[in-house]
Amino acid sequence: MKATVSSFLILTPVLLLGCSHGVQPAQQAPPTAQAQLVKSVERQAPQAIRMTGTVHAKQTAVISAQVPGSIRQVLVQAGDRVRAGQLLATLDDAAMRSELNRASAAQSAVEKQQMAAQSNALLAAGTLARYQMLKDQKSVSPQEFDEVQKRSEAAGLQLQSLQAQSDEAKAAVAGARTQLGYAQLRAPFAGIVTARMADPGTLATPGTPLLQIDRDGPLQLYTSVDESMIGTVRLGMKIPVSVDGIGTGEITGTVAQIVPAADPTSRSFQVKLDLPSAPALRAGIYATASFPGGMRAMILAPQSAVVMRGSLACVYALDQNGVAQLRYVTLGNRHGDQVEILSGLAAGETLVDNPGDRDLSGKRIEAQL
Prior knowledge:
Structural class: alpha+beta
């Protein structure tokens, strides 16, 4: 009896052990789907260094007074178009007109003195001629002749002195007229008023800006280029320029000037680009110039392989078992029918083309013939 019980106790663990190592159910295979497949590729492409700048008129005039004076009128506003020579503002010219009147009166007085001196000189010259005849006839003494001769010479010198005074008076009148002209500020060329910095009653001083005018015509983009790449920029080079918000897309600028001295703070050089005419292009707006910066490696994928999930760009990338995984990527610039992938994807990966709205994540993808 004891032997039977022992045998049962020995067999029980063996039976239990055998049951614990039964056959496991087979793992379920992932679902399959068919789709067109494409690959991401690596390509060498020119690198563009994007530099922002401001659009300026080719020629800008800052209008300021040349003489001190109170502003009497400002006849234009910012945004007004003006023609060359148009009156923009006037200064109080009472003191200038008084100076002109004084100079004109002095000139008139000198001219009258000059007329009297001219008559005296003519009379003295006639008297000398008669005394010369009498001297030849020995009808006058040498002393009398010398006196007449000296009076004639004095009359001539006085006439010359008054001529010099007359020239000085004319110059004073011309100077006073010029000063009076400074009381009227006129447009140096046709253009548009871009700034008005003064109002009537303000005291204008020489050098203080009152108005600013941009000349009509083509515009320029002022931008900066780092000293490390300034050697690649040449006069006449064509540079792509993008201007946001004007609806013209990308335009082409031409390098017109490279300022030879670098900014000691930023270690960059100012570059001016001539821009083509565009109706919506205005001075003062921002633009971006793309300068060539050598070659760089970039990863490209077909644009058709990219899908949007909300505001995020995604691709379905296949793993080593051919199973699709949803991968979020960062997109760069378009290059034809391909787009640059900045992050989230490596070169040579297999992607699902035109996935549409299908949810392919976790499915084994079979290439569609």
